[in-house]
Write a structure and sequence with these properties.
Elements (H helix, E strand, L loop, with lengths): L4 E9 L5 E10 L3 E5 L6 H9 L6 E6 L3 E4 L11 H5 L2 H11 L5 H7 L5 H11 L18 E3 L24 E2 L19 E5 L19 H15 L3 E5 L7 H12 L4 E5 L3 H4 L4 E6 L2 E6 L2 H53 L4 H38 L21 E7 L26 E6 L3 E5 L6 H12 L13 E6 L3 E4 L12 H8 L5 H10 L16 H13 L7 E5 L7 H13 L3 E5 L3 H6 L4 E4 L7 E3 L9
Parallel strand pairs: 3-10, 3-11, 4-7, 5-9, 9-10, 15-19, 15-20, 17-18, 18-19
Antiparallel strand pairs: 1-2, 1-4, 6-8, 11-12, 13-14, 13-16, 20-21
Helix pairs in contact: 3-4, 5-6, 9-10, 12-14
Length: 642
């Protein structure tokens, strides 16, 4: 099989000396590859090296073809246009110059064979489900591309102008592709390196391609960038966590695109539904890359079989070590007996001293050889055990028991009054989402959460899911929720008194305090040893608990936030989680699932990851639509859950 990407002893160090990758040998062939690994293992760094956005410290990356790259974040300016994000702004500008009769050879060279670029761009956007019809009253037409002080357009081309030169290269890269995501767009036109100068409009006024990216949702932005890559049909496409922060609708469109993606696709993701669509899994672990045939389900099955075989090998090796130890001990006992018997014969002078001395020397030599043989066999057995143990994955697991979080079946945990605007229901002006004002005169419905039920909350981005969660949390203390930009047709009529809330951004942690001190705030009555023991169950041990939260990895920060809630003096009987799997690697995700599955209270979780929602036992679902009341819906279903 021809490999599209080859890494030879690839090493990359950050400017502070931190080694991200060391001597990595890897190869990616055709089809779709899911790249997985722990946070911090170097997955994103590897993609950036392949895309040419980073230069290796040593070793080489060779690519066979041009590369399209979608980074985790798209730092776009508010003034950037859809055309810029698609990477067709220069071609469009040249086309319109040609149409105006002012063309030069440079313009014709820029257009090349792309005379129908606008039509193809709109067709690709339609294929990806991106609706560019402007929101009512939204001024989305650009007044022209932003330019830097050198006069260069802030192009967001998904594919660079440089083409790969096939396998080869020196000191780093063969070929120099471009990508989406490292486009240095400022937050505003006045930022360093950019002037506020703008040119006359490009293209016909009102063209959807001139719509500002700032008016798109996060999901539309990602899908538009993906459409730009597909438009250029690169030989190799790199996607870094493409489903992060996408709502369900956008995820499903991306899944469909990935399922039929042409060429070579390498996607970094912790989204197990997305990983079910790939042809092979490449795992970056302990500084090496290993490829497994099949999708994520196949990978987990193969890994389980391998680990079971490894456990059997370890048990056999342990038994061999015990046997060799026993034989060595028995041999030493026999030798000691012989020594005592010989000494007794020597002392009683039963035989001539010369003969006894000769036999003593011969016995010592024989015993020494036998002991060395047995010790060598024991050493070999121990080495065999070490080799067997190296094949075992000692992935730690969160182990907690939370009896005080239990909620009796049937107890009212949460009650929401809902109404539908425009259908005769009235409500007082002050009773916004979560307000405790006078209830509506006519309520259309009521939602309950009783006992240790688990409810998933789903809905499009911007529909008010987080607003609803904040309102519930605010209602515990009788507070009014902060204004959210729009009122929600729901009132928190009742909520249980002990509520734990894990926000999406983990902003409930004090970045300047240590891990231990963050927990001490939530559990002031606990002693230091109890706090340390509790943190150890969340895999936070030793000196790590003295580290500042700001210095922790994303997975560690998440475990601290979860420990702070669940190990509080009064642990919650209602746990509320907002998109908890965002930016968690697969290992941290699995640890979270285990922790939630031993939690005995009620659970309310916002998420677009249906596989995760099914794993934590979310047997009910509320769907939230903007300016509409939450409604009960069918539980989430995944391909694996039926």
């Amino acid at each position: 099989m021809t490999c599209a990407v080859i890494c030879d002893r690839l090493t990359y160090s950050w400017p502070d000396g931190t080694i991200a990758l060391a001597g990595l040998d890897a190869a990616f062939g055709g089809g779709r590859t899911g790249l997985i690994g722990r946070n911090g293992s170097g997955k994103s760094t590897l993609l950036r090296l392949v895309a040419g956005h980073l230069t290796p410290t040593s070793g080489t990356v060779a690519v066979d073809g041009d590369v399209g790259y979608l980074a985790q974040s798209l730092p776009l300016a508010t003034g950037a246009t859809v055309a810029e994000l698609l990477g067709i702004d220069r071609v469009r500008a040249a086309l319109h110059v040609i149409e105006a009769g002012r063309a030069t050879e440079v313009d014709f060279a820029e257009v090349g064979d792309d005379w129908d670029i606008e039509e193809r761009a709109l067709a690709h956007l339609n294929r990806f489900g991106v609706d560019l019809a402007p929101p009512a009253g939204c001024p989305w037409v650009s007044t022209g591309p932003l330019k830097n002080r050198r006069g260069r357009t802030a192009s967001g081309a998904s594919i660079g102008d440089r083409r790969a030169e096939g396998h080869g290269g020196h000191g780093g890269r063969a070929g120099a592709p471009g990508g989406v995501g490292d486009m240095e767009y400022p937050a505003s036109s006045g930022e360093e390196g950019w002037s506020g100068e703008q040119k006359e409009p490009v293209g016909a006024a009102g063209s959807p391609l001139d719509r500002r990216v700032a008016t798109l949702s996060g999901g539309e932005t990602v899908l538009t960038a993906l459409a730009g890559i597909a438009l250029r049909r690169p030989a190799i496409t790199l996607l870094d966590e493409p489903t992060n922060n996408l709502d369900r609708s956008a995820r499903e469109r991306l899944y469909r695109a990935v399922e039929h993606w042409p060429g070579v696709l390498i996607v970094v993701s912790h989204d197990t539904e997305l990983l079910e669509l790939v042809d092979q899994i490449a795992e970056l672990r302990d500084g090496g890359l290993r490829t497994w045939g099949g999708n994520f389900c196949d990978y987990t099955e193969q890994l389980a079989v391998e680990q079971e075989a490894a456990r059997r090998t370890v048990r056999a090796a342990e038994a061999e070590v015990r046997r060799e130890k026993r034989q060595l001990a028995e041999a030493q006992i026999k030798l000691a007996r012989r020594v005592r018997f010989g000494q007794k014969k020597y002392d009683t002078k039963r035989e001539p001293r010369v003969i006894m001395n000769q036999r003593k020397r011969e016995a010592q030599v024989s015993a020494g050889k036998h002991r060395i043989l047995l010790e060598d066999r024991l050493t070999e057995a121990r080495e065999g055990l070490d080799v067997a143990e190296d094949t075992m994955r000692d992935d730690p697991a969160i182990r907690i028991d939370l009896p005080h979080t239990e909620v009796p079946a049937g107890q009212d945990v949460l009650r929401l009054d809902t109404w539908t605007p425009g259908e005769g229901a009235t409500r007082p002006p002050e009773s916004t989402c979560g307000g405790r004002g006078t209830p509506p005169t006519v309520a259309n419905g009521r939602l309950y959460l009783r006992g240790p039920e688990r409810v998933a909350i789903t809905g499009p981005n911007g529909s008010g899911k987080t607003t609803l969660l904040r309102a519930i949390v605010a209602a515990v203390g009788g507070d009014r929720p902060e204004p959210s930009g729009h009122t929600s047709p729901v009132r928190v009529a009742h909520v249980i008194d002990r509520v734990g809330y894990l926000p999406q951004r983990l902003d409930n942690l004090d970045e300047g305090l240590s891990v231990l001190d963050n927990l001490r705030v939530a559990a002031p009555s606990a002693g230091v040893q109890d706090l340390r023991a509790g943190l150890a169950r969340f895999l936070l041990r030793g000196d790590r608990v003295e580290q500042r939260v700001a210095d922790l990895s994303g997975g560690e920060r998440f475990r601290v936030a979860l420990a702070r809630i669940l190990l509080a003096d009064e642990p919650p009987r209602l746990l509320i989680l907002d998109e908890p799997t965002n930016n968690l690697d697969l290992e941290s995700r699995e640890q979270l699932v285990r922790a939630l599955n031993v939690y005995r209270g009620a659970l309310l979780v916002v998420g677009h990851d249906h596989a995760f929602l099914a794993q934590v036992g979310a047997g009910r679902r509320w769907v939230v639509e903007r300016d509409r009341p939450p409604v009960e819906a069918e539980p989430v279903r995944t391909p694996l859950s039926g």
